[in-house]
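Annex B. Sample input.
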Amino acid sequence: MVVLGETRGGFGVTPLCWLIQGGARGDQRLNQILADTQILYNLYKKHHWLMRGPTFYQLHLLLDKHAGEQLELVDAIAERVQTLGGVAVGDPRHVAEITVIPHPPNGCLVDTPLVETSRG
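Annex B, continued. Sample output.
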């Protein structure tokens, strides 16, 4: 089994056994992944709530589905950290400190065609 984790050049795949064998360092890596997964969950929910436009309903459902999948991952990763003897990061302030996911702009996303969005 592998998990998505931060590497020097960005994101990459980390074998789960490396995290398990890493002791405290493994806990730190898992907590980093846990923090990032919590941020992704919250971003999906943010855009789920704030979506507008002609395909609102379809995107609203899709974003909610993805948020639910992230929430399942949050639970699984946190339980793994605890099982390995660590302390799972759960405080939103701590999550915000250790995440590597950049802070998105405030406000709503308007459902616009990809061509218009990519023109910037």
